[in-house]
Structure formats: structure tokens, C-alpha cells
Amino acid sequence: MIKEFTERELDRIIEMAWEDRTPFEAITFQFGITEQETIEVMRREMKPSSFRMWRKRVQGRTTKHAKLRTDDIDRFRCSRQRSISGNKISKR
């Protein structure tokens, strides 16, 4: 089942997926979708060449998976960033 997102939510999911230091677990926490569902969103919403470039970039990247990170990184957002709560997107 494909979840429906607003345009703003899709933009934020894509933005978070492109960010090097944002793990897939943060996307799961905020939007309730798995890593595989995030990949499906990226495939559906991006041009094929952009999707291939993104997949090449994130595959094997330790910062995209919380379990592969070093123990000294215990959060998925900047300490100066506003608090993220559930599916709420902070106002820009």
C-alpha cells in the first residue's frame, strides 16, 4: 500500500533522503515509512537519472543507517534544530 503525502511532506521526505547525515530511521520516525518505502517514494518522484545518482550516493553510506553509525552520534538532528515531533514539519 502506498501512503499518500502532501506536496510539502514529499518535499521534506526527499530532502531528508538526500541529506548525508539524516538516517532512514529519522524518516521512519517522522513519516512512518520504512527505508524500502522511502526508496519507492524517491523512485516515483525523481527522474530516473536522479534516482540512480541518489541510490549510488546512499548505498553503503554509514550515516544513512543508525545501526552503522559510531556510538558518539546518538541523535538524528542538529542540536540547534527545532524539535521534531511525530509527523509535524517545522515551519520554514
Brief characterization of the structure:
By secondary structure, the protein is mainly α. It has helices at residues 7-18, 24-31, 35-45, 48-58. The chain has 4 helices and no strands.
Question: Helix fraction?
Answer: 40-55%
Structural class call reads mainly alpha
Strand content: under 5%
What is the rounded distance between the termini? 30 Å
The tally of strands reads: 0
Q: What is the string of SSEs from the N terminus onward?
A: HHHH
Anisotropy-based shape: globular
Secondary structure blueprint with pairings:
Blueprint: H1 7-18, H2 24-31, H3 35-45, H4 48-58
Helix pairs in contact: 1-2, 1-3
Salient structural properties:
globular; single chain; 0% strand; CHP03643; 4 helices; TIGR03643 family protein; 92 residues
